[in-house]
Amino acid sequence: MTRGVRLILDRIGHAWGELSVLEDIRLTAEPGEVMAVIGPSGCGKSTLLNIAGGLLAPSAGAVRMSGAIADDCLNPLTYVFQDFSLLPWRTVRANIDFVLERLPAAERAARVAEVLALTGLSDFAGAWPKELSGGMKQRVGIARALAVRPACLLMDEPLSALDAQTRDLLLDEFAALIARARTTTLYVTHNLAEAVRLGHQIVVLSRRPGRVREVFRLDRPLLERSADDPEAKALEKTLWRMIRDDAAVAERERAHGPN
Amino acid sequence: MAQIEGPVRFRGGGFSPRNRWIAGTATLLALLAVWQAGAAAGVIPTLFLPSPAAIAATLWRLIETGVLWRHLSASLARLGVGWVLGTVFGVATGLAAGLWSATRSPVAAVVAALFPIPKIALVPLFIVWFGIGEGSKIATLGFGVFFPTVIATMGGVDNVPRGLIRMGQSFGLSTFAIVRSIVLPGAAPAILSGFRVTSSIAIVLLVAAEMIGAENGIGAFVLSAGNLYDTDALMSGIVVLSLLGLTVSGAIGGVERVLLRWR
Ligand SMILES: Nc1ncnc2c1ncn2[C@@H]1O[C@H](COP(=O)(O)OP(=O)(O)O)[C@@H](O)[C@H]1O
Ligand SMILES: [Mg+2]
């Protein structure tokens, strides 16, 4: 049983003024699965995710949701941000509490306690964001997202601001949390290991304007995967061969381009 | 080629002055002592500048007879009402200008046009409009506080990270919740430093307005003491004003420490 919905990106295109960023993106995130989206920097991954979540109106195409939304879901499409986006003037507990404004106080407190326990943050409920490490901040980010019991998680490079060791730790935690929450997940990253660790579908975008180059499938359940699985390593190599030229060009464009 | 051998000389450091409160207090006490000694020795003519001891004695007498409180309470009431009115309307207007395009340019234009007017010049006009009583004084204060508050609030709202606002929107929060929990707290540091500015403006305008037409109030008291060449009373009034300023800025500091403890 999943509580996730199907999210359909139907011929999405987007241009920032003259700059065409996304062209003819057709993807379907399946209920309860993770769709990892990789591509060189500047190819339009964040733009795509913002379109998927309704934060940005696409120049072309439409996003559709289909499926049943559970009664306890407060916000079907919920983000986890690269920069964590915690309110510095609220404690950890209050950062989670305030996205639950529509619930009665008692239920709010129960949900906050539940997600704090899930993410190992119970001892930090009263801490200010400035007192937390990057990894702890992102744990708050995911706790806040899970607290609204989303039907679809939208994660934009959630580990990119963290050091490599913290990233590995959180990656395993994310896998467990996503598997437990049974949500649909759109996971945008430029890190191939993350994509292979979490993705059921792995979507490779071309460099700007971003188009879907290929979609790989990995059916092994998240909880049965490990970082040094040979199948995963092989796929990671294949992915890198596919995108290294694009990445190199994107890197040079970045130095001179509109970024 | 030059041979070199020996320890690397320290050359960091830079300027990092420390706060030493003892040095500050000692300086003030020394100044007071010199002043008192000068007055006692007859070097400083006491008609022009009474000695600290004489000022303290006069101040005590004013407190005992209740004269001080009569003037001070009138001033405090004007200050409180005028400042609160200017602040409430100023924060509301600044928020509106910071949040919505419909209000932004109109507010900015009005502020740009009216802010540079020296508010004291408006006192006679306000007397015509609101009468010589409390109305004109409160209007002067409120008006003087309003504009800097609008500017501080607008700037504060502009500096709230847009990512946080988008975060609130992405969680489907109501506009009210976003304003209350994200915009206002995010703008609070700027609004509170605006309070420092507006409270001192308010005290200046208070004294000025009370000098133009009032029977009571510290400003009126200082003016009439001057007219009578009663410099002891005059200086007592000035001491009270400076204590008032210190108290207000201390109170704002306290509010900042509580509201901004997350920083
Ligand atoms: N708000 C914006 N206005 C104009 N151009 C933008 C804006 N946001 C992103 N872009 C441009 O769109 C392209 C894709 O950006 P983005 O979606 O952030 O890429 P990615 O997340 O894959 O690195 C980049 O070239 C970027 O400069
Ligand atoms: Mg991005």
Tell me about this structure.
The complex is a heterodimer of chains A (259) and B (263). Chain A has seven helices and nine strands; from the N terminus they run E-E-E-H-E-E-H-H-H-E-H-E-H-E-E-H. A six-stranded mixed beta sheet of chain A has the order 5-6-7-3-8-9, sandwiched between helices. A three-stranded antiparallel beta sheet of chain A has the order 2-1-4, covered by helices on one side. The N and C termini of chain A lie far apart (43 Å). The relative contact order of chain A is 0.20. Chain A has helices at residues 45-52, 92-97, 105-118, 134-147, 164-181, 192-198, 230-256, and strands at residues 6-16, 19-29, 34-38, 60-66, 77-80, 152-156, 184-189, 201-205, 212-217. Chain B is an all-alpha fold. Chain B has one domain (52-259): MetI-like (MetI-like fold, Orthogonal Bundle). Chain B has helices at residues 21-40, 52-65, 67-99, 101-114, 123-130, 134-158, 162-170, 175-212, 218-227, 231-259. The model of chain B has no long low-confidence stretch (mean pLDDT 93). At the A-B interface, strand 5 of A face helix 7 and helix 8 of B. Bound molecules: adenosine-5'-diphosphate (ADP) and magnesium ion (MG). The site of adenosine-5'-diphosphate (ADP) has 13 residues of chain A, from helix 1.
Largest sheet of chain A: 6 strands, mixed
How many separate helices of chain A?
Answer: 7
| Gyration radius of chain B, rounded | 25 Å
Gyration radius from CA atoms of chain A, angstroms: 18 Å
Low-pLDDT segments, ≥5 res of chain B: none
- CATH class label of chain B: Mainly Alpha
What structural category do the secondary elements of chain B indicate? mainly alpha
Outline of chain B:
flat
Choose one word for the global shape of chain A: globular
Distance between the first and last residues' Cα of chain A: 43 Å
